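Sample A.
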Amino acid sequence: MGNLFCCVQVSQSTVAVKEKFGKYSDVLEPGCHCVPWFLGSQLAGHVTLRLQQLDVRCETKTKDNVFVNVVASVQYRVLANKAGDAFYKLSNPRTQIQAYVFDVIRASVPKLELDNVFEQKNEIARAVEDELEKAMSAYGYEIVQTLIVDIEPDEHVKRSMNEINAAARMRLATNEKAEAEKIIQIKRAEGEAESKYLSGVGIARQRQAIVDGLRDSVLGFSVNVPGTTAKDVLDMVLITQYFDTMKEIGASSKSSSVFIPHGPGAVRDIATQIRDGLLQASTSH
């Protein structure tokens, strides 16, 4: 019915290319238009103005001889004021865009090592976009954005990279563990040194207290019991300690005993030896 009344409808986000007797005439905007077919006018076709996306997978080699698959996503659309150029000058725009993407990627990636490819993917995308913008603008196309969405090395290369990364992390963990063990050993040694120092201080204080106690006992006994000497008091103290020791050995069921002469005369001999040693030391000094 539309063709009968010479009326055509152009949908939103679409333009129609009008010809007259086979020659380009005009670009029809969305809406209803009169195309008098009996005067030689006709529609040659429609061009969409919607944003389109083309994903291009390109295999290439890096500077360090690693083959990678680079996936680029190109977002493009036709300019409304250049719809005629887009319709007539290119028969297959997607193939044209793909060729330019291949050219730029295969010229850029071989200059970079694999690690730098990952780091400089934005620069690669910008180079692809600039080249496409210069080439496709002459055909009525606008390159909205170009993205490098994926970089896939060979499977063996990825496995090797993961192993290298794992080894580096393991080495770091080993160093940290060794450093922690070193700190623990240092702290333990410092603790043992401090413990031995405090133990020595305690033993020295204990011996000083014993000496003070013996001195007070000797002085007190000599005052309260006239006629006694310091030697008599020390002999009595040694005998008392001797009996206390024997009592503790006999009371403990798990004690390890060393049998030595243990009569009262033995105590006297021990006291004599201690006293002679002290006298000899005093004489040498």
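Sample B.
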Amino acid sequence: MARKRVVKADGTSSAAREVPSSARVQKERTPSRWGLKGGLLALFVIFILHRILPELIQHLVYTHRLRVPFFVDLSQPADLSHNHTINMYLTSEEGISLGVWHTLPQSQWKEAQGKDLAWYQNTLRDGSPVFIYLHGNTGTRAATHRIGVAKVLSALDYHVLAPDYRGFGDSTGEPTEAGLTTDALYVYNWVKARCGNSLVVIWGHSLGTGVATNAAVKLLEQGVVFDGVMLEGAFNSARQEIPFHVFSWFYWTFPGFGYFFPEPWAKNKVVFPTEENLKKMKSPILFLHALDDHLVPFQVAQQMYEVAVSAQNAERVKLVPFDGSQGYLHNGLYRDPQLPDIIKKFVLSL
């Protein structure tokens, strides 16, 4: 029997409008299948990032792989006109070799010509103050401002030991907070074993201020106090009290990022509790900070100075601000003509 063909008002037949049930099911299932795949892909990406990102953030914190200046032979400081300076390598712990520059007091430059490492090391007993310079993140001991600091100190007739932490420059290993602190302590103990009764002063810059205060507290646990500590461009990681962090730019640049990936300092991977360290330290402290510092605002230094004064007194803790109109920013204090007198006054007070 022939099936009647029903024609609708719009001219289409019911037969033409019928869609097989299997096709409808396929169309209905397609979006959910793609949604499932997309969800799984998103979870996979999050999982991979969660495994990789902590390592990535560690590199963002230290930026130690950015070894500027480029194409420099760190074993030859004279190539950078860094005279009366010798390169050496110290083993801070098994498998960790630290590249270190030892710059002599400027008055010894002629005598130093052609001398070997043993001769340089023996000069540490000459009675001149010895500075250990702990640099900030990024780059190597060959950075212009780091050499600039060494030259200022050498001109004052001080020794300068400038190490690259593990993972920086030609030093081996990977940087961690504990590792950097161990490196600083090793260099300090190495110097103390060779310098007799000479003063040993720690100069920390930026990240190095965190390393310096960590090392000071570790030594204090052993009953040892640094002769003096200078903190240039010091930062404060106590974020609950200060709404900015020297390493937090990556998180506020990408809102919501911290929800999935906590900051490295949140899991004690990078802490550098400078403020808490200052409450324990017993060494004389000199803060140096530019009013135009673009990385660590001056009020951070002011706050930490007040913490340190409360822990000691205003005679043992000093804060020297530098005119913001000079354009020193975060790295340029070594250019200030008053800096040598400021350093000399601090050393004479020790």
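B remarks: Strands lie at 85-93, 96-103, 130-134, 159-163, 200-205, 228-232, 285-290, 317-322. The CA atoms of residues 97 and 258 lie 35 Å apart.
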